[in-house]
Amino acid sequence: MFVKLKASAQHSSHISTKFNFIFVGNFNVILITHFHKKYVFITHPYKNSMRAQPFRSPRRSYYMKSLLFAFAALFILSTTANAQQAWELRRDEDGIKIYSRRVSGSKTIELRLLTQYNATSQQLINTLLDISNYSNWIYGNRKAGVIKKVSDHDIIYFTEAHLPWPIADRDLVTELIINQATQTAPLTIQAKSVQGILPPKPHFIRVPYSMATWHVMPDGANKINVDYTFAIDPGGSIPNWLVNMTIASGPYKSFVKLRDILKTAKG
C-alpha cells in the first residue's frame, strides 16, 4: 500500500518549504525541502515506536499530527538557518560588490566582496606578503609589521587601526597562510586572528576574533576573480547605527586602493 500527500508553506518572503507525506506500509516518511536542502523524517503512524503494525488508511487526525510534526521540524531548521542570515548587498560600485550579514546572538559581522583585478595571482600574493606596505592601502591602518615568519607562505603580523571618532582604535595579531592553487582547488589565502602573541597595548582595543579568506581564480592571462569573505568581532562597544553606516565604506576604499597597488606590483 502506498499513499502520497503534498503540502507547502511560505515561511517568509525568501523561504519556500515543501512537505511530501509518503505512507509506506506501517510507517510514514516526511520529506521536507527547505533552503534547497532535503530532510527525511520517519515516524510510526500511531505509536512512537518502530515495531511493525497492521497498515491502516490515513486519517485526517493522523495527517494533522504528521503536519504538526513537520512544522515542528521546520521550526528547528529555521532557527538554525536564521542564525546565518542571508547576505545583504551594501554597495555595488566600480566593479566591486560588497555584501554583509550579522551572526545572530553574537557581535560577529560578516562581509563578502566580489571583484575582478587586472593582475596575476602572484602579484596579489606578493602584495599581501608586503606587510609593511599595508598602511598605503588598507583603510584605517596606521601601522603593521611582521612578528614571525613561519615560512615563505606563513607569516604572523600585527596591525594597528586608527578609526574615526567615536570608535576606539583597534589592534590585531594575525596569521597569514597562503595555500597555492591545485587542480581541484583555487588559490586560497587565509588571515586569522591569533591570541597570546603580544600583550595588550595602551589605548587600543584588541580585536578578539577576525577571519579573512580570499578565493582567487585566474580569468585569462592577466586577470583574477576575487571572492573575499571577512568575519570580525571588533570587541568593545560600537553602536549598530554606526556599524550600518560604515560597514561597506572601509572595505570599498581598501579594495579600490589595492587595484592601484596591483598595477605596479611585482609578479
Lay out the secondary structure.
Blueprint: E1 2-12, E2 15-24, E3 27-34, E4 37-43, H1 60-82, E5 88-93, E6 96-102, E7 109-117, H2 121-129, E8 141-151, E9 154-161, E10 170-179, E11 187-193, E12 205-206, E13 209-218, E14 224-233, H3 240-246, H4 249-263
Parallel strand pairs: 10-12
Antiparallel strand pairs: 1-2, 2-3, 3-4, 5-6, 6-7, 7-14, 8-9, 9-10, 10-11, 11-13, 13-14
In brief:
With 267 residues, the protein is an alpha+beta fold. The chain has helices at 60-82, 121-129, 240-246, 249-263; strands at residues 2-12, 15-24, 27-34, 37-43, 88-93, 96-102, 109-117, 141-151, 154-161, 170-179, 187-193, 205-206, 209-218, 224-233. The chain folds into two domains: 2-82, no CATH class; 88-263, START domain (Alpha-D-Glucose-1,6-Bisphosphate, Chain A, domain 4), CATH 3.30.530.20.
Could you explain the architecture of this structure?
By secondary structure, the protein is α+β, with helices and mostly antiparallel strands. It folds into 2 domains: 2-82, no CATH class; 88-263, 2-Layer Sandwich (Alpha-D-Glucose-1,6-Bisphosphate, Chain A, domain 4), CATH 3.30.530. It contains 4 helices and 14 strands. The strands form 2 sheets. Strands 5, 6, 7, 8, 9, 10, 11, 12, 13 and 14 form a 10-stranded mixed β-sheet that branches. A 4-stranded antiparallel β-sheet has the order 1-2-3-4, covered by helices on one side. The longest helix is centred in the N-terminal third of the chain and has 23 residues, at 60-82. The N and C termini lie far apart (68 Å). Mean pLDDT is 77; it is low at 1-16, 23-27, 45-57 and 67-82.
